[in-house]
Amino acid sequence: MGRLLMWLESLRIRGLRCLGDAVIPLQLGVTVFAGANGAGKTSILEAAFLLSHARSFRSGAKDALLERGAEALSVFAELRHADGCVRRLGLGRQGARWEARIDGEAVSLSELVGECAVVCFEPGSHALIAGGAEERRRYLDWGVFHVEHEFMSAWRRYQRALKQRNSLLRAASAAPEALFLPWEAELDATAAVIDRLRTLYLEALRPHIEQAMAGLLPELGSVEMKYRRGWSEESALGDLLASQRGRDLARGHTTMGSHRADWSIVFEHAPQREHLSRGQEKLTALGCVLAQAALYAERRGEWPVVCLDDLASELDKAHQAAVVNQLRSVGAQVLVTGTEVPEALQCGPTQVFHVEQGRISPLL
């Protein structure tokens, strides 16, 4: 049986940070982008991630994505699926609007994101464990979106109803109850769908999380995942929204619902997040990224592209080797950055590019 993978055959990047116009031919397996800090290495991974998430993994203003002086940015890729089908993907931004294309046809951002799967472990990934709930919801919802077809429409309907209810809560003059009721009913109905799909996803993810953590952090013992849906387990969301409307009016926003959900990982020997060292937070985040990739492969029949940004500074040599060996064993396309080729990648087939001031040239 052949390896079941999706992989980027080429990447063309224009106007993204310091990358004016770069064309990168890619291979299956491991590719390293090596060069000094600030050379543009991370922006290459960012381009691949944009195709799969329609946002950057870096925090900060969206305008920072644009090369200085550039009016627009674009990322194009040729993506080969496990079945041999090749799709031409494009994502561009001029002004505030993103535009997506597949095989030259305009498509929605969600269609583009649904076509291409890229997961990334990078210096900010520990926020998945140590940061706020928004980062964990994003991780969860990207995973749910790719395996549960009904999720996107429920999520969109929920976001629309939430926006409408929040507008009523902030209105200059008090809105009558009759205006709240249809939006609260919509929030109640869609939140139930979102909660059910998130719960199913986390149950499917659990064995992959257990396996990843056993390999990366065996000293912390068994692992458990906890999920909080964003409102009381005892009550329907619609009833709570009606009874808590006065409190929400005082605060000017909706204080409970699917947009307040969160999840956490609890280890037998580190029952609270504060018990983890910074290094353990990073390894836990890495385990989450690898588990999500493995579940995607199980459900969709092909491994996603895996990006590892600044691998050598994020992980010690033993963990670098463990991760690389695991990803080589499944044959996934892995894009790695570093100031030099990490030791773990110096043996075994590796494609290497040198990156300097936004210019990318092949070395091996």
Question: How does this model look, in words?
Answer:
There is one protein chain. This protein is α/β, with parallel strands linked by helices and 364 residues long. It has a domain of 185 residues: Up-down Bundle (Glutathione S-transferase Yfyf (Class Pi), Chain A, domain 2). The protein has 11 helices and 14 strands. The protein has a 6-stranded antiparallel beta sheet with strand order 2-1-4-5-6-7. A 6-stranded mixed beta sheet has the order 8-11-12-3-13-14, with helices on both faces. Strands 9-10 form a two-stranded antiparallel sheet. Helix 4 crosses helix 6, helix 5 crosses helix 6 and helix 6 crosses helix 9. The longest helix is centred in the middle third of the chain and has 40 residues. 40% of the residues are buried.
Topology, number of strands: 14
Q: How many helical stretches?
A: 11
Unreliably modeled segments: none
Shape label: globular
The name CATH uses for the topology of the domain at 119-303 is: Glutathione S-transferase Yfyf (Class Pi), Chain A, domain 2
pLDDT average, as an integer? 92
CATH top level assignment of the domain at 119-303: Mainly Alpha
CATH architecture term of the domain at 119-303: Up-down Bundle
Helix content: 40-55%
